[in-house]
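Project outcomes to date are best conveyed with an example. Our students and postdoctoral researchers have been running inverse folding experiments weekly, and each run begins with a structure described purely in tokens. The record below, which covers 84 residues, was selected by the lab manager from last quarter's runs and is presented without edits.
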């Protein structure tokens, strides 16, 4: 068997991982989780939101509690975990 060796182009990989396209993909998935979390909530005042940004070498997207009711809801029912 032949051994295949390859080298990563780290600057190119970092650029790809922080690109607006990658942020868009992550934000789309985060919006799906947010929609499920808003559907699972029992408190009508609880709201969740998404955010996407590039940090260091990668892009990240988060689903977060928008108000205190959502924090309480998530603590009691693990809403965000169930939405995953």
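After processing, the design step wrote out the following sequence:
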């Amino acid at each position: 068997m032949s051994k295949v060796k390859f080298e990563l182009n780290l600057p190119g990989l970092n650029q790809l991982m922080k690109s607006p396209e990658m942020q868009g993909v992550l934000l789309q998935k985060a919006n799906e989780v947010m929609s499920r979390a808003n559907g699972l909530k029992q408190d009508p005042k609880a709201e969740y939101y998404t955010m996407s940004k590039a940090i260091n070498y990668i892009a990240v997207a988060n689903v977060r509690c928008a108000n205190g009711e959502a924090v309480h809801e998530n603590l009691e029912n693990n809403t965000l975990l169930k939405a995953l």
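The first strand starts at residue 48 and ends at 55. The chain has a mean pLDDT of 91. The training component of this project remains on track.
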